[in-house]
Amino acid sequence: MGPQGEAGPRGEPGPIGPGIQPVYFNAVMQGGFQTVAPEDNVRFLLAFQSGDFSFTPNTSEITVNTEGIYRIDYTLLIRPAAGLENIAYAVAINGVENPLSFFGIYSDDAVNTERAELTGMFITSITAGSTVVLRNKSSSADYLAGTGIDNQAVNHAAILLQRIA
After folding, report:
1. Which end of the chain has fewer CB atoms at under 10 Å, N or C?
2. Tell me, what's the pLDDT at 126?
3. What CATH number does the domain containing 61 carry?
4. pTM, rounded to two decimals
5. 148: left (phi over 0), alpha (psi -120 to 50) or beta
6. Phi, psi of 100 (to 5 degrees)
7. Whole domain around residue 138: which residue ranges?
8. Any domain includes 155
9. Domain count of the chain?
């Protein structure tokens, strides 16, 4: 057997594959106030989505209709009670809290006119038909406040689900 010959000319590239179709869900609760008891879920009012989710306004449950790997981001605007902020939240999928989703803040000298912003983000696999909620894991009720900021009604709760794979 002799030596390998020279490589032939490069062939035409094949067609581009379908890639990942964008799937997203963005919900907020704007203005006003919301008290979230321990182990209770945050409610959302307004939603913008790609259509692959089911959601009823002013409820907490988001149903994911397309399986995939998702990035989930959330943010809350919280007004402290009695100077103490001892706040923790997590995302529950089908009732089970994802350990990567637990985020919190603590302060023992906040005044009740201040607002603290809590944010969380993580990546997880979600099967089609799963439900997603944002849950208060604090030992006390939290007061989400979307008013009192430069006379504007701002979002006091937001969640974003994006399929990335």
Report:
1. N
2. 98
3. 2.60.120.40
4. 0.86
5. left
6. -80, -10
7. 24-163
8. yes
9. 1
| Residue 14 is assigned to a structural domain of this protein | no
- In degrees to the nearest 10, what's the CA dihedral of 47, 53, 57, 62? -110
Residues 6+ apart with CB under 8 A from 8: none
Q: List the chain residues with pLDDT less than 70.
A: none
d(C-alpha 105, C-alpha 155), whole Å: 19
Q: CB–CB of 134/118 below 8 Å?
A: no
How much is the pLDDT for 90? 99
Helices (H) and strands (E) in the chain, counts: 0, 13
Residue 35 within a domain = yes
7 domain residue, yes or no: no
Phi, psi of 99 (to 5 degrees): -60, -25
**What pLDDT was estimated at residue 19?**
76
